[in-house]
Write a structure and sequence with these properties.
Number of domains: 1
GO molecular function, one term: hydrolase activity
Strand order of the largest sheet: 2-1-3-4-5
Number of helices: 7
CATH architecture: 3-Layer(aba) Sandwich
Pfam families: Lipase_GDSL_2
Helix content: 40-55%
Distance between the termini: 14 Å
Radius of gyration: 16 Å
Organism: Romboutsia faecis
Protein name: SGNH/GDSL hydrolase family protein
Keywords: Hydrolase
Shape: globular
Number of strands: 5
Largest sheet: 5 strands, parallel
CATH class: Alpha Beta
Structural class: alpha/beta
């Protein structure tokens, strides 16, 4: 399987401890590749700050909707697309509540489905991963100021909304929040341990999808 992982900084591998990038074998994508072995190909497409559909007025090129088609076509044939987005959509400057963010995900998924030519046998196969909720403690750290008020509350509300989107659009769904939490350094990025947990859980999910 060619597995395309489309996400934000938590797919890119941002290290909240020192703002660098985790090495390949620490990122969940790299661990997942090691677990799957050579028979599968895990493709990393993580970008810090990426949103589902919102244009960031401060940093350009972060709208997932604008890049998803060329991304899919670059890596075709895709057997499974994993989408883990939504954390950045909760930023106060976008003015979007959780329901609106889920509409953004819906629009993104529909665009993916209209690009069926990028998938093997023209059959879109999509796994929506709910982003780990931003912890309320984010208000106590520097990045909390730029994320703005309400980001944590909105992030928790995304989980059931994303599950509903997956059900309505015929996508697979996984919620990692029962197994891991965001780091204690900034309360919104994955720790090294969380990357490992996510990779092992997704390994299980992918094997179930393979049997599906």
């Amino acid at each position: 399987m060619n597995i395309l992982c489309f996400g934000d900084s938590n797919t890119h591998g941002y290290n909240p401890k020192d703002t660098t990038r985790f090495e390949k074998n620490i990122r969940w994508t790299g661990i997942l590749q090691n677990l799957l072995g050579e028979k599968d190909y895990v493709i990393e497409e993580g970008l810090s700050g990426r949103t589902t559909v919102f244009e960031d007025p401060i940093n350009e090129g972060l709208c997932g909707l604008n890049y998803i088609v060329p991304c899919l076509m670059t890596h075709e044939p895709v057997d499974l697309l994993i989408i883990m987005l939504g954390t950045n959509d909760t930023k106060e400057r976008f003015g979007a509540n959780a329901d609106v963010i889920s509409l953004g995900l819906t629009r993104l998924i529909k665009k993916v489905k209209n690009t069926e030519v990028a998938f093997r046998n023209n059959k879109p196969n999509i796994l929506i991963v709910a982003p780990l909720p931003i912890r309320p403690e984010i208000e106590s750290v520097e990045c909390g100021a730029t994320m703005g008020k309400g980001c944590s509350e909105k992030s928790y509300k995304l989980i059931p909304l994303y599950k509903k989107v997956a059900e309505e659009l015929g996508c697979h769904f996984f919620d990692p929040s029962p197994y891991a939490i965001c780091s204690e350094y900034d309360y919104m990025h994955l720790s090294e341990e969380a990357h490992k947990i996510l990779a092992y859980k997704l390994y299980e999910v992918i094997n179930k999808i393979r049997e599906y």
